[in-house]
């Protein structure tokens, strides 16, 4: 449509008529104006994003979060702890920030899990995390089935879980496999290779291939999941991403002067690693995926698939409880096994 | 040139010369004999998978100790327990032979539950001590093979903020049995500032938990200044932050061993990049001291514990005569017990006799 349509709703019809050129397109209805309406509404409401970071201590989780959002959003920046002591049990720490860019407001919640994988005996260390995720689903469900429910249900569900793989260069560890196997069924998992500046390019490619093989052979479906591709276009884009995961990232919140520009990086005696240079590491790809291209998709999959599965299971459970209480023999209701 | 100076230079001086006894030649004799005999050294490497242990060992000794290595996948790792794999190579340099045994511990720290992962390692160390003790106490002591672990390189991950709980527990379990040298692996992950911070953290935590790592002996006061300075530098750099590599990279026109990254080349043998050279120097200059400490401290500890506990070591059908100076306690205890028993018996008999006498007196009176 080359005709300028009435995009701003506070322009009266006459004004539009004055602005319109004599070549009026009578077949134009103006349905596409809804995009602008949605945009204004979204700008007013703002967005919510809940990211969980999981990985052993020292893998650069907090630094990466700060680098991703170019501000001090991590637990370490907010809670001033001078000694980084490994906690004896896994703790779940949620920190929220309101950040804004070009008029778009976002409530970003970073959920940190200090203590994961750091103990000598790490059996069942994924349980507190599973419980937290399910608790968020439960809270949302409870609000949803309320008779007098809020207009906008506060969304504390975990949209994305970034799992940090230590850069051993060999293969996944049993802990990684166990964790991802269980959690990929309830939340979107984005695996990343942490502190990737310890791997040369050949080692990185070998490691990634090995990881993809092991994910495949263990039936672990990480984001973007194959079964949720909506159409051919989606599939094409996502296939390209699937061939690159896990992204090998390096994080930094310090700036250095490189070739006359100030860049985020790490300075060593043998060179400076530029975080946003795709020849050095894949941080830019991760940022694009999480923020610039797939953020809405991540939220959609969380609410329409993971949350729905939880909801179905929960409501079935309460159904069987009711039938049992009434002495009615329970049928075999499909319950999604964890 | 005076006799004394000639002696210092190790030259052969004619024993007929007056005022000269000749025992200053002894060190040369020892040197010649040791060179002929060759040296034995056993090095154990412990650390999680993927910390570059094998690469570092290959770089240190410029050999390939693991030619047919297959790294298992995660699924296989779930089933495995810690294994002990010893590989021996004979290296020769300028006529001096070194029989180097590297004891690798694959599987350490891999499992989800690493509670028991070091019992295998500790049993191995104890077994070597036991075997040596047995050989030493044997009849034919001519060819004792020394397989005791002289040194243990413990690899610490550079990714954490210090020692992990597993690191602390393991080092505390073995620091009385073997010389522990902590090494920070894959040090090219760290900037200089991060490296210094990590070293300080590790040293603090080692102090805090009372872990006894191997301490380099101070240079003697009569050594030359260079050596003293070198020892000072070495001591200040513990734990060593190392990078290993066996690949030759072209950098600044010359070939160096290193790792090629898109942002630069890490040179293994460049002291500004990492402490590899320091580690190698320490190992080579103090190999003898490591062996001595193993013999004089760890082995003696093991031996006295063992003899206090067990007493007799018998095998091959003969009973070991316990030398009176070394282990008198078990025999003495036996003798004491026999004496006590005999005394108790005597006392009982005396009581019975007294009773019988009393009875006889009574019947006599009646």
UniProtKB/TrEMBL annotation, chain A:
CDD domains recorded for this chain? CDC_Septin
Q: Which GO terms describe its molecular function?
A: GTP binding
Gene Ontology cellular component?
A: cytoskeleton
SUPFAM superfamilies under this entry?
Answer: P-loop containing nucleoside triphosphate hydrolases
Alphabetical keyword list? Cell cycle, Cell division, Cytoplasm, Cytoskeleton, GTP-binding, Nucleotide-binding
**Domain Septin-type G residue range list:** 45-317
Matches recorded under Pfam families: Septin
Principal subcellular localization: cytoplasm
Note the InterPro entries from the entry: G_SEPTIN_dom, P-loop_NTPase, Septin
Q: Where in the cell is it found?
A: Cytoplasm, Cytoskeleton
Q: What's an example GO BP annotation here? A: cell division
Similarity-based family: Belongs to the TRAFAC class TrmE-Era-EngA-EngB-Septin-like GTPase superfamily. Septin GTPase family.
| Protein name per the record | Septin 9a
| Source species | Oryzias sinensis (Chinese medaka)
TrEMBL record, chain B:
Predominant location of this chain? membrane
What keywords appear on the UniProt entry?
Cell cycle, Cell division, Cell membrane, Cell projection, Coiled coil, Cytoplasm, Cytoskeleton, GTP-binding, Membrane, Mitosis, Nucleotide-binding
Give the source lineage, highest ranks first: Eukaryota, Metazoa, Chordata, Craniata, Vertebrata
Q: Which SUPFAM superfamilies match?
A: P-loop containing nucleoside triphosphate hydrolases
Say yes or no: keyword Nucleotide-binding present: yes
GO MF term set:
GTP binding
- Family per record: Belongs to the TRAFAC class TrmE-Era-EngA-EngB-Septin-like GTPase superfamily. Septin GTPase family.
Report the subcellular localization.
Cell projection, Cilium membrane; Cleavage furrow; Cytoplasm, Cytoskeleton, Spindle; Midbody
Q: Any coiled-coil ranges, and where?
A: 339-366
Q: Which organism is it from?
A: Oryzias sinensis (Chinese medaka)
Look up keyword Cell membrane and say if it applies: yes
Give one Pfam family: Septin
Output the GO biological process annotations, alphabetical, semicolon-separated: cell division
What name does UniProt use for this protein? Septin
Annotated Septin-type G domain residues:
37-309
Q: Name one GO cellular component term.
A: cleavage furrow
């Amino acid at each position: 449509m080359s005709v300028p349509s009435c995009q701003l709703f506070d322009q009266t019809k006459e004004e539009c008529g004055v602005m319109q050129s004599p070549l009026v397109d009578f077949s134009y209805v103006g349905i596409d104006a809804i995009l602008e309406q949605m945009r204004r509404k979204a700008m007013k409401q703002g967005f919510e994003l809940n990211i969980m970071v999981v990985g052993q201590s020292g893998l650069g989780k907090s630094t990466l979060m700060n680098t991703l959002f170019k501000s001090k959003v991590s637990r370490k920046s907010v809670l001033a702890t001078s000694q980084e002591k490994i906690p004896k049990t896994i703790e779940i720490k949620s920190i929220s920030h309101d950040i804004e860019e070009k008029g778009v407001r976002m409530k970003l919640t970073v959920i940190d899990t200090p203590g994961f994988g750091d103990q000598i005996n790490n059996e069942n260390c994924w349980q507190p995390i599973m419980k937290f995720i399910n608790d968020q689903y439960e809270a949302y469900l409870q609000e949803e089935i309320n008779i007098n429910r809020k207009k906008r249900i506060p969304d504390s569900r975990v949209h994305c879980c970034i799992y940090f793989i230590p850069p051993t260069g060999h293969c996944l560890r049993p802990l990684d496999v166990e964790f991802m196997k269980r959690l990929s069924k309830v939340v979107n998992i984005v695996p990343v290779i942490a502190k990737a500046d310890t791997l040369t390019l050949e080692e990185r490619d070998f490691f990634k291939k090995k990881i993809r093989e092991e994910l495949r052979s263990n039936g672990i479906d990480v984001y973007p999941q194959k079964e949720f591709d909506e159409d051919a276009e989606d599939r094409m884009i996502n296939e390209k991403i699937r061939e690159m995961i896990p992204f090998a990232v390096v994080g930094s919140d310090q700036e250095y002067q490189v070739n006359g520009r100030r860049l985020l990086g790490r300075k060593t005696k043998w060179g400076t690693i530029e975080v946003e240079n795709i020849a050095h590491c894949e941080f830019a790809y991760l940022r694009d995926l999480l923020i610039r291209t797939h953020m809405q998709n991540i939220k959609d999959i969380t609410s329409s698939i993971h949350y729905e599965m939880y909801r179905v299971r929960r409501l079935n459970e309460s159904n069987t409880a009711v039938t049992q209480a009434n002495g009615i023999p329970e049928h075999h209701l499909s319950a999604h096994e964890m | 040139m005076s006799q004394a100076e000639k002696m210092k230079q190790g030259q052969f001086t004619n024993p007929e010369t007056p005022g000269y006894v000749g025992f200053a030649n002894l060190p040369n004799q020892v040197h010649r004999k040791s060179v002929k005999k060759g040296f034995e050294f056993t090095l154990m490497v412990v650390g999680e998978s993927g910390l570059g242990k094998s690469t570092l060992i290959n770089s240190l000794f410029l050999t390939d100790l693991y030619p047919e290595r297959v790294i298992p996948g995660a699924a296989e790792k779930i089933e495995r327990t810690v294994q002990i794999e010893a590989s021996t190579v004979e290296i020769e340099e300028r006529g001096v032979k070194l029989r180097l045994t590297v004891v690798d511990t694959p599987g350490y720290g891999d499992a989800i539950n690493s509670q028991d992962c070091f019992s295998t390692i500790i049993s191995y160390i104890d077994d070597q001590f036991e075997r040596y003790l047995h050989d030493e106490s044997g009849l034919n002591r001519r060819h004792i093979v020394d397989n005791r672990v002289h040194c243990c390189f413990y690899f610490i991950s550079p990714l954490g903020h210090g020692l992990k709980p597993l690191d602390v527990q393991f080092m505390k379990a073995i620091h009385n049995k073997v010389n522990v040298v902590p090494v920070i692996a894959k040090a090219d992950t760290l900037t200089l500032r991060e490296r210094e911070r990590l070293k300080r953290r590790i040293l603090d935590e080692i102090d805090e938990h009372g872990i006894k790592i191997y301490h380099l002996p101070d240079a003697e006061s009569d050594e030359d200044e260079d050596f003293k300075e070198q020892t000072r530098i070495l001591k200040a750099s513990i734990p060593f932050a190392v990078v290993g590599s066996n690949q030759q990279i072209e950098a600044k026109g010359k070939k160096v061993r290193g790792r090629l990254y898109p942002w630069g080349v890490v040179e293994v043998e460049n002291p500004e990049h990492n402490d590899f050279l320091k580690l190698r120097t320490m190992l080579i200059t103090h190999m003898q001291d490591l062996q001595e400490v193993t013999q004089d401290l760890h082995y003696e500890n093991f031996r006295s514990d063992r003899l206090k506990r067990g007493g007799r070591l018998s095998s091959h059908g003969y009973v070991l005569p316990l030398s009176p100076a070394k282990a008198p306690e078990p025999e003495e205890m036996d003798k004491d017990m026999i004496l006590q028993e005999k005394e108790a018996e005597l006392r009982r008999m005396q009581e019975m006799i007294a009773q019988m006498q009393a009875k006889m007196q009574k019947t006599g009176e009646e």
